[in-house]
Amino acid sequence: MRTATWYFDFISPFAWIGLHRLKELPADIQIEYRPVLFAGILQHWGQKGPAEITAKRRYTYRWVHWWSTQLGVPLRFPAAHPFNPLHHLRLAIACGCTPEAIRAIYESVWTTGEDAADPARFAALLKNLRVSEDELQNPEIKVRLKANTDEAIQRGVFGVPTLEVEGELFWGADGMEFAKSFLSDPAVVRNAEIRRLDSLPVAAARKT
């Protein structure tokens, strides 16, 4: 079996679509699900999220709605977005990051149109996944989430979802074709022109 790591945050609708698209990978790929804090990744790289830029937020929500419909992925934005995903990320870790738990959490957030931050809804989710509030407050869970995020940054992850296969990163739900192409033929990425692009010099930089 070959292995792949999938970095995700429940705040991202693209990761919900990406979760559905993981089934397109070859059958011999074993996936490790790695929850990370997208806000921490953005902060590290000095980026803004799509929802933090007014014009981009409007377009992104329209695009996600259209694309999910085209793909046949059930999706309805929560009542407010962005929301704080920390509890959901910690819940995934408390559940051992199983595919079943991750899907259940995503469905709660991205198919109902309800408030993802509603304490009563989250309590129901805890009950459904058989996790207590005390378990969720385990300091080891918080440490694991931070470690996941730090490791992702060290690996070069700058957005979610990101799929890592054989040391190569494929960003976004729309990166699946790229990943599948690489898995079919590594020379798609490991060639002279890509090496040239990886070391291409910067000729001009925007003032900050």
Task: Draw up the topology in text.
Layout: E1 2-8, H1 13-21, E2 29-35, H2 38-45, H3 54-71, H4 86-94, H5 99-110, H6 119-128, H7 133-136, H8 139-155, E3 162-165, E4 168-171, H9 176-184, H10 192-198
Parallel strand pairs: 1-2
Antiparallel strand pairs: 1-3, 3-4
Describe the model.
With 208 residues, this protein is α+β, with helices and mostly antiparallel strands. Helices cover 50% and strands 11% of the residues. The protein is built from 10 helices and 4 strands, in the order βαβαααααααββαα. Strands 2-1-3-4 form a 4-stranded mixed beta sheet. Helix 2 packs across helix 8. It is globular and about 55 Å long. The termini are far apart. The model has no long low-confidence stretch (mean pLDDT 97).
Summarize the structure.
With 208 residues, the protein is of the alpha+beta class. Helix content is 50%, strand content 11%.
Features:
208 residues; alpha+beta; 4-stranded mixed sheet; 4 strands; 50% helix; globular
Q: How are the strands ordered across the major sheet?
A: 2-1-3-4
Structural class: alpha+beta
- Principal-axis shape equals globular
**Rounded average pLDDT:** 97
Low-pLDDT ranges:
none
Which percent range fits the helix content?
40-55%
Task: Please tally the helical runs, counting DSSP H or I stretches of 4 or more residues.
Answer: 10
What is Rg? Answer: 18 Å
Cα-to-Cα separation, first versus last residue:
46 Å
Strand content: 5-15%
User: How would a textbook summarize the main sheet?
Assistant: 4 strands, mixed
Q: How many distinct beta strands?
A: 4
H and E order: EHEHHHHHHHEEHH
